Amino acid sequence: MAEEQWRTRRGGVETALRTSAVWASVRTLIERQQAELGRPLRVLDLGGGTGGLAVPLAELGHDVVVVDPSPDALASLSRRSAERDVADRITALQGDADSLADLVGDQPVDLVCCHGTLEVVDDPEATLAALAGVVAPGGYLSLVAAGRLAVVLARALAGQFAQAHTALTSADGRWGSADPLPRRFDAAALQALVEQTGLVVEDVHGVRLFSDLVPSALIDSDADRIALLELEQVASRHPDFGFLGQLGAAVHVLARR
């Protein structure tokens, strides 16, 4: 990645520490899908909020439906898409997983994204079933959910050993009653949940392996951020040390119908 590109899009989905690895996988996938289909994709983003993923996808020429329960988030999405001149390719709908079938209709969805949402829904299994139900034959699900081991390590490094122990042994991966997340997932358990829907998992990897643990003062420069992103990319895919992916603050699953 050229430093000039980083400087111009430093806060963009391509370069932000929290989104870069996921975006790289999603972009590779959609480029392959578009080549196979010979047309722009129809994408559904559940819990897409203000458009952090939807807007970049629309900028690449794809049609994106964002379903989110928050009217404020959808209003921000509408403003953002207008500012980036992609409003004609983004449809913002208020709803949740229970209303997906009615909102999407019978049009095929080539890619369904559910990033940072499965942790907070009432019923993860029902949500995944609803998502799988709108994926077209040959289409994909991109699922990103919070991972357990990252919070165990973070709590331990903070000296909160009892909380780390609770997060490691609890059924929901939470470190206590004050934990802001309702649940976290192990990679194997998340893969099993996806496979229960009938989708075929093609890839599972951890993201944000180190970035949530590194003090911000150590990644203050563009060069440091680039180096960290490159380290995380290599570590998550290393043939001998792939277990490092288990430390990711999130787990990214790609599955196909």
SSE order and pairing:
Blueprint: H1 3-8, H2 20-37, E1 42-46, H3 54-59, E2 63-68, H4 71-83, E3 90-94, H5 100-104, E4 109-115, H6 124-133, E5 135-146, H7 148-157, H8 161-169, H9 187-195, E6 200-207, H10 222-237, E7 250-256
Parallel strand pairs: 1-2, 1-4, 2-3, 4-5
Antiparallel strand pairs: 5-7, 6-7
Helix pairs in contact: 7-8
Pfam families: Methyltransf_23
Protein name: Methyltransferase domain-containing protein
Keywords: Methyltransferase, S-adenosyl-L-methionine, Transferase
Keywords:
257 residues, Rossmann fold, 19% strand, seven-stranded mixed sheet, alpha/beta, single chain
Whole-number tally of structural domains: 1
Any idea what the CATH architecture is?
3-Layer(aba) Sandwich
User: Biggest sheet: strands side by side, in what order?
Assistant: 3-2-1-4-5-7-6
Which structural class fits the helix and strand makeup? alpha/beta
Characterize the structure shown.
By secondary structure, the protein is α/β, with parallel strands linked by helices. The protein has a single domain (3-147, 185-256), classed as Vaccinia Virus protein VP39 (Rossmann fold, 3-Layer(aba) Sandwich), CATH 3.40.50.150. The chain is built from 10 helices and 7 strands. The chain has helices at residues 3-8, 20-37, 54-59, 71-83, 100-104, 124-133, 148-157, 161-169, 187-195, 222-237; strands spanning 42-46, 63-68, 90-94, 109-115, 135-146, 200-207, 250-256. Helix 6 (124-133) links the parallel strand 4 (109-115) and strand 5. Helix 7 (148-157) runs antiparallel to helix 8 (161-169). The longest helix has 18 residues, at 20-37. The model is unreliable at 1-10 (pLDDT under 50). Keywords: Methyltransferase, S-adenosyl-L-methionine, Transferase.
